[in-house]
Specification:
2 copies of one chain form a homodimer.
Chain A: H1 18-36, E1 41-42, H2 44-51, H3 55-65, E2 69-70, E3 74-76, H4 77-88, E4 94-99, H5 103-110, H6 112-116, E5 119-126, E6 135-136, E7 139-143, H7 147-154, E8 158-161, H8 165-177, E9 182-185, E10 198-201, H9 204-223
Parallel strand pairs in A: 4-5, 4-8, 5-7, 8-9, 9-10
Antiparallel strand pairs in A: 1-3, 2-3, 6-7
Chain B binds a DNA duplex through helix 1, helix 3 and strand 2.
Chain lengths: 275, 275
DNA sequence: CAGTGTGAATTCTTTCACAGCG
DNA sequence: CGCTGTGAAAGAATTCACACTG
C-alpha cells in the first residue's frame, strides 16, 4: 500500500483477456490498411499474417468480441474495423496532454499516429518558462502551472509523461490529482499511482536490453552448445563467475559507474569461464 | 510463407523465461539507483517495491539466474548489478545504428538512457541527402547509401528503425541483409524478418489505444454495473451480438471525429446492439 | 468445401506457502 | 528469527484440432 500498485491487476476486464486487448490495435491497423485498399473481406489467415500473429490466436481473440465472421468466407473488413474501434473506445474523442516537451515530447506531438485514431493532443505542457508560448506541432506550449486548469477545462483523462526521470513522479502526482486516470510514461522510472489509475510504460533502454540479451545468446550459440545449466542447489548455471561477494569486493565495478568494458564487435561472451 | 515469421519463438532460451528477461532491466535500474546511493544490500521485498513488482515474482526471477542472495539478509547490490548486467549482455559494448533521423530519431539519439548502459550510438542514418553531415546529438548524420558499409565497419548487430512506416520494411531488409540480427522498430508496421532476427516493437499509438480501452471501461463501470454480457447459452457467450453486417452498412464511423466532449459516463457506447 | 468458432490440451506465468539456511 | 529459494498450486495465454455452418 505504501507505494501503491503500479500495474492494476486489470485482468478483471469483464471478458476480454489483457493479451487480446493488446493485440486489438494491431488487428485494427491491418484492417484499416485493407479498408483503404477497399478489400471487402479477409480470412483469419490473411489478416493474421498482416498483423504478424497466427490465425488460431486471431480467431480466438475475435471470439472474445463476438462472432463477427462468416464461415467459409472470412470477416467483413469495414464491420470489423468498426467493432474493434468501438471495443477499444476509439469511437470517441480522447483529449491527451503531453507533459515534457523536450526532444521526445516534441516528437510525440508531431507523431501523426497520435491524432489519427481518436486521440487529440489537447495541450503541450513544459516546466521551462522559456518554452511557454512556443509552438510545437502547431500547438503553443503551456507552462506547468496551468496543468490542473488545462486538464480540467479539457476533460482530459489521458496524460503522456515525457519528462526527465527525475520529474516524472511529481508530474504524475499532479496529473492524477488533477483527474487523469491513464498515463503513458516515457520516463525511465517506476511510477506510483493510486488504485484505479492505469500506467503503461514505454522504455527504450529496456527494449534494447532485452534485445541485447537475445543477441548475446545468439552469439553464444554460434559456438557454444549447451552452455547454461539449470542447476538448483548445485552450481548456479554460469556459475564460474565472481563468487559470492561477501560484502562487495569481487568484480562489481562492471556497470554501476564507469562501465567502460567492451568486447569485440561480434560479441563474444565475455570469457566467463572455461568449462 | 513468403512473409516469414515476425516473432521468433525465442522461448527456447535455455533457462530464463521471456517474462523474466523482460523484467531484468527493471531490476537492474532499481539496483543501479541503490548502488548510487551506496546501499549495500536489499531484501527482495524492498527491491521488488522499487522495481514495481511483487517480491515472490522477483525471487522467482532471480532463482533462474542462480542463488545470489543471502538468507536472512538479502541481496548484495553491487554483486547483483554485475550478475544481471552480465546476464543481459551489458558487460559488452553494443554499437547501435539509428535509421531515420526525424523528430523521433533525433530524440532517440539524444536519449541519455541509450548510451548509459552498454549501448553506443555508432551511427545515425537518414535517407534525406539534406540531412547528411548535419550533426545530431553530436554525431554527423550519414546517408542511407552508406548503411551497409557502416554496419559492416562497426560490427553493428542492433538497429533501431525510426523511419516513417512506409520505409520501414525496406530499411529493415537492408539492415538484415547487412548483418543486423536485432531490431527495435518504432515505425507502426509489422516487419517481416527471416528466422533468427529478433524484432521488438515500440508503438505509441498502440499503447494509447490500450489505455483508451481501459479508460473506456472505467467510464462505463462508473455507472453501468454489468454491461458487457458474457453469456448466451452459458458458455463463452457469443450469441447475442450485433448480427451480420451484410456488407458494411451498420454504423461505421460513429462519432469519432469532432465532439470535444469527454466520456458520457454511460450513454456513450453507441447503440450497436438492437437485440 | 473453406474457413470460423471453440472446447480441450499444452505451455507459460504468477502466486502461494513453507522448508531451511545464515 | 528473517529472508531466500523453490516445489507445488493456480491462473493466463497459446495452440491444437475439428465440429459445424454459410
Amino acid at each position: 500500500m505504501a507505494t501503491g500498485r503500479t500495474h492494476r491487476p486489470a485482468t478483471r476486464s469483464r471478458g476480454i483477456p489483457e493479451a487480446t486487448v493488446a493485440r486489438l490495435p494491431l488487428y485494427l491497423r491491418a484492417l484499416t490498411a485493407l479498408s483503404e485498399r477497399s478489400v471487402p473481406t479477409v480470412s483469419s489467415e490473411e489478416l493474421a499474417t498482416a498483423a504478424g500473429v497466427n490465425s488460431a490466436k486471431l480467431r480466438k481473440d475475435f471470439s472474445y468480441l463476438g462472432s463477427y465472421g462468416t464461415r467459409g468466407v472470412g470477416y467483413d473488413v469495414e464491420y470489423l474495423v468498426y467493432q474493434i474501434s468501438r471495443e477499444l473506445g476509439l469511437t470517441q474523442d480522447w483529449p491527451v496532454v503531453i507533459v515534457g516537451i523536450g526532444n521526445l515530447g516534441a516528437a510525440l506531438a508531431n507523431y501523426g499516429g497520435f491524432a489519427s485514431r481518436g486521440f487529440r493532443v489537447a495541450a503541450l505542457i513544459d516546466a521551462d518558462p522559456a518554452m511557454a508560448g512556443k509552438p510545437v506541432a502547431g500547438i503553443a506550449v503551456q507552462h506547468t502551472d496551468e496543468l490542473e486548469k488545462i486538464i480540467d477545462d479539457n476533460g482530459v483523462s489521458i496524460g503522456v509523461i515525457a519528462t526527465p526521470a527525475g520529474a516524472a513522479q511529481q508530474v504524475c502526482d499532479r496529473l492524477v490529482a488533477a483527474g487523469i486516470t491513464s498515463i503513458l510514461n516515457f520516463a525511465p522510472t517506476v511510477l506510483s499511482v493510486p488504485e484505479g489509475v492505469d500506467v503503461r510504460k514505454v522504455d527504450l533502454s529496456i527494449e534494447l536490453q532485452i534485445l541485447a540479451f537475445h543477441e548475446q545468446r545468439k552469439a553464444g550459440e554460434e559456438a557454444t552448445p549447451p552452455e547454461r545449466e539449470t542447476a538448483g542447489t548445485g552450481e548456479p548455471g554460469v556459475a564460474t563467475t565472481p563468487k559470492r561477494p561477501s560484502v562487495a569486493a569481487d568484480r562489481p565495478a562492471a556497470g554501476a559507474s564507469g562501465d567502460g568494458s567492451r568486447q569485440g564487435p561480434d560479441g563474444d561472451v565475455p570469457a566467463v569461464m572455461p568449462a
